[in-house]
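Troubleshooting: if your tokenizer reports a length mismatch, compare your output against this known-good record of 267 residues.
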Amino acid sequence: MLTVTSVNVNGLRAAAKKGFVPWLAGTDADVLCLQEVRAETAQLPAEVREPAGWHVVHAPAAAKGRAGVSLYTRQEPERVQVGFGSAEFDDSGRYVEADLPGVTVASLYLPSGEVGTERQDEKERFMAEFLPYLVGLRERAAAAGREVLVCGDWNIAHQEADLKNWKANQKKSGFLPEERSWLSAVLDAEQGGYVDVVRALHPEGEGPYSWWSYRGRAFDNDAGWRIDYHVSTPGLAARAVKAYVERATSYDQRWSDHAPVTVAYGA
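Known-good structure output:
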């Protein structure tokens, strides 16, 4: 069994003070993918920088206090790669991958956008570069008899079932037609060739949501978005036996505005 958890921590130093440390001590995950770490490695407290029992790679952004992704693995990786060969994005703290036996696991923090701004242009440039990389990664893995799993905050709700208030967000970044179409291409058997693992296990109904705004009563009303995904090659997706969101029991128990998304994969 391989258990993988992905979570946007919304600042790892802040999360460490709010409850991430005991959560980390109690998790059964074999692999942990973090996004929005927002810290240089040396700035992190020791209990999250290099916790006992984990092999850790941190990939901070060159821009201080922004983005940043990390991978925690129980087993020492065979290979680690930061970035995906992009001149613009490799130092932006948005992608790190590691080879474990039989599978390449990656932590992704796809840029969030805002319609009509440079942030949206940046998001679109990232997507344009990243899809061809995903295709090549899948093809290389297949040739080597390996699977691929890209976990993280994709900052796109793919379908109407993936956000509570979809009608009000059709012109907002994160639910734009062109963003959803791009994610459809990632998940199309003839294009990207990947599978949305959680949706495959939970094909009916809304959610399960993984992000709730801190504003208003979004969390209490479960008015969330499902933007944190496990995206894998079909062979690994077929081995997924259980997927769940580790939603806090109450608002004051949250250590991030996202919740961990965990999937157990069978042998």
